[in-house]
Amino acid sequence: MKFPIVAAYAASVLSTAGLVAGDPNVIQVRAEDLQVRKHGGHSFKISQIFNHKYQHKVKGKGIRDVAKVYQKFNMEFPDHLRQALIRVFGDLGLKVPGNINALNNGLFGPSETVGNQGEVVSTPVQFDVQYLAPVQIGTPPQTVNMNFDTGSSDLWVFSSDTPAKQRNGQKIYNMTESTTAGRVDGHVWRISYGDGSSSSGNVYTDKVSIGGVEVEKQAVEVATHVSNSFTNDAASSGLVGLAFDSINQVSPRKQKTFFGNAIEDLAMPLFSANLNKAEPGNYNFGFLDTTEFVGPISFVDVDSSKGFWQFEATGFTLPASNCTESNNKTGVFQSVPHTGIADTGTTLLMLPQPIVDAYYTQIAKARSDNNYGGYVFPCNADLPDLILHIGSYQARLTGDLIKYAPADTDDFATAKWCYGGLQSSQGFPFAIYGDIFFKSQFVVFQGGELDKNDWSKGAKLGFAAKPGTELPKETKVAQDILPINNVTSILSRRRTGGASSRRTD
Ligand SMILES: *[C@@H]1O[C@H](CO)[C@@H](O)[C@H](O)[C@H]1NC(C)=O
Ligand SMILES: *[C@@H]1O[C@H](CO)[C@@H](O)[C@H](O)[C@H]1NC(C)=O
Ligand SMILES: *[C@@H]1O[C@H](CO)[C@@H](O)[C@H](O)[C@H]1NC(C)=O
Ligand SMILES: *[C@@H]1O[C@H](CO)[C@@H](O)[C@H](O)[C@H]1NC(C)=O
């Protein structure tokens, strides 16, 4: 076995490491070897809270989540998706949002709608999120609940500048009530979406505190206009973008994210996402909680050039395959190299078509159906696991995570068809590892330390199983962990760190 030299990585926070060969390079770090970098540095856990306005019983949930991904990555809805959305709104007796019609040139006139509009007072939550996290802005602190999004880089919030008619009960940040709020003159922000809508506004700096870690002058982007989909989500006051600073949408000068500002003060230059199925999860900043994952953490390089937490994945294994004898791929690694991004702000797991097709081929009667906007299958099917390979790391998604939403009714109890949490990323520039993936994996977002002024240089993503998602015992792990006492260059850094990974200040 050949061990790569990772001198640069030795300068990183993870002061002891086992190295494994692989493509992409995977560096495994044992939990007991995790070190704090900065004594007295900050660390905190921020627990999610359930969005009590979350509408899990709304028909067409799957397709609305797909639409949200198109919106987020500023891609126009394909025709079949647009039509399926119009159908969903019609079924619900709702007015089709103007922005769908706007894209619908030729199919419908500009004001044409479907469904029984008379019964509608307002459109429902279209793109709501299930879990939020509390954020404090200003002096004295104003607490608002926001969505942590590793797929964008703006901290934007409903504010006293947001017109009343674009608000829907959201808690707002009122700049005039904060003694530390200051306008960043001449700076504005605007985020456009693929369906033609956008959110935009002015820029302030203010004290922002998350879990007790304070950034004195955080750019807070206050909305003067929000698109419908955000107006409709009454419990969420905005987003905390946690991707790289380069895709921040403030002009003329881009602003730093909360993590970009806080990183210098953190005990370890990282945060972790621990999301769960059907219960609130948490984010940790500055430390790793060893009770949240099992086994070593496997770190891979991040390509931050597009501003996302982008990494290379290599393929998949179907651990239990329902196929013919002649075409039996059970337990066989199948190579589908692809680029993915780790995005907590996307609900679904969107992977290359060959992986998605191979997965659903195992399930009797599963089919890709334009009416539902993607793969559906009989709700009574027993879904097999899926193993995704990121170099030598194997992430096990349990089948239950892929049974995502009822498709033909609004309730699992009555639905015959269920919508898959795994869908195709065809047409997107990369695969999107969204919440379905996060619910099976503990994921570490580690800032790089190669360049003091640019934490994107040398950034890494770490993956580990969560309790219950370990690989089955019989699964052969591709590489062994190198004994720590063989990594002398990294070992020498051990002495600088403290003993434990968890700190609170
Ligand atoms: C913001 O705070 C000011 C001062 O307390 C108050 O007059 C104003 O009504 C508030 N704006 C909103 C939209 O709540
Ligand atoms: C496929 O291969 C696996 C493992 O060798 C075996 O257990 C299974 O029965 C095979 N399935 C079919 C349909 O041949
Ligand atoms: C496996 O596939 C066959 C043929 O499509 C189907 O009859 C059978 O029900 C499937 N089994 C499961 C568990 O999905
Ligand atoms: C360290 O690894 C090298 C191979 O890279 C091996 O030759 C050597 O024996 C190892 N030393 C120890 C102490 O394990």
Core attributes:
505 residues; alpha+beta; Cathepsin D, subunit A, domain 1; 3 domains; eight-stranded antiparallel beta sheet; seven-stranded mixed beta sheet; 10 helices; 28 strands; 31% strand; globular; binds 2-acetamido-2-deoxy-beta-D-glucopyranose; protease; Aspartic peptidase domain-containing protein; Aspartic_peptidase_AS; signal
Architecture overview:
With 505 residues, the protein is α+β, with helices and mostly antiparallel strands. It folds into 3 domains: 265 residues, Cathepsin D, subunit A, domain 1 (Beta Barrel), CATH 2.40.70.10; 59 residues, no CATH class; 139 residues, Acid Proteases (Cathepsin D, subunit A, domain 1, Beta Barrel), CATH 2.40.70. It is 13% helix and 31% strand. It is built from 10 helices and 28 strands. A hairpin with a 4-residue loop joins strand 5 and strand 6. The chain starts with 6 loop residues before the first helix and ends in a 14-residue tail after the last helix. The N terminus and C terminus are likely disordered. The site of one 2-acetamido-2-deoxy-beta-D-glucopyranose has 5 residues, from loops.
Please specify the SSE layout and strand pairing:
Layout: H1 7-10, E1 18-20, E2 26-29, E3 44-47, E4 49-50, H2 61-72, H3 79-91, H4 98-102, E5 131-137, E6 142-149, E7 155-157, E8 182-192, E9 198-210, E10 213-225, H5 228-231, E11 238-241, E12 250-251, H6 258-262, E13 270-274, E14 282-285, E15 294-301, E16 310-317, E17 333-342, E18 349-351, H7 353-361, E19 367-369, E20 374-378, E21 386-390, E22 393-397, H8 399-402, E23 403-406, E24 417-420, E25 422-424, E26 431-433, H9 435-438, E27 441-446, E28 460-465, H10 488-491
Parallel strand pairs: 6-11, 7-10, 17-26, 18-25
Antiparallel strand pairs: 1-2, 2-15, 3-14, 4-5, 5-6, 5-9, 7-11, 8-9, 8-12, 9-10, 13-14, 13-27, 15-28, 16-17, 16-21, 18-26, 19-20, 20-24, 21-22, 23-24, 27-28
Helix pairs in contact: 2-3
The site of one 2-acetamido-2-deoxy-beta-D-glucopyranose has 5 residues, from loops.
